[in-house]
Amino acid sequence: MSAKGYVQVYTGNGKGKTTAAIGLALRALGAGKKVLFIQFMKTATYSEHKILPHLSPNLTLKTVGKPFFVVKEGSMPEEELAKWCKQAVVFPPGKPPQEYVDLIRQGMDQALEAVSSGEFQVVILDELIVALHFGLVSWQEVKSLIEAKSPEVELVLTGRGATDELIAQADLVTEMREVKHYYTQGVMARKGIEN
Length: 195
Prior knowledge:
The chain is of the alpha/beta class and about 200 residues long.
C-alpha cells in the first residue's frame, strides 16, 4: 500500500517558494519517486531549466507561460509598472488575455491527468497560485483539481497570495515572509540566484 499524499502550499511575499519546490522535487527523485513539475506563468528561461531536465528520467518539467507578465489594471503603482512596460501586458480586472487563459487551461488539463492517473507520485504546480490571483484559472477549477488527486499523490502549489479557501483546503501551508530584500535597493533578479 502506498503512503498517503498531502496537499502542500508555499506562499507569501518572501523569496524561496519555487526554490523550496525544486528542493522537494530533488528529495522525491532521490527516493525513486516520479515527479511532474509544471511551471505556470513562466517560460523555459530560468537557470533551473538548464539542469532539471537532465537530472533524472523520473522528472518531467513543463512550462506554461509567455515571455511577458500579466498585470491587473490598477494593481501596480505607475512607477513600478513603467519598469516592466515592455515585458508586461496590462488587462482590466476580470478580462485577462485569452492566449494566457488558454495556456493555463492546457497546464490545468495536464495537471488533472497527472494527479489522477497514478503515473506521478509528486506533482508540483509552480506559480499556480499566481494564475489564480490573476483570474487565469478559477478557485473552482483549482478545488476540483485538489479533489481529483489520487490519495497517494503529493500535490504542491506555489505562488504569492494563497486565498483563504486554498489555505483551508491544504494540509500544509508554508508562508515565505519577506523581512528584508535587496530588490528594494534596486537589485534586479540575478542569474543563478533568482533567475
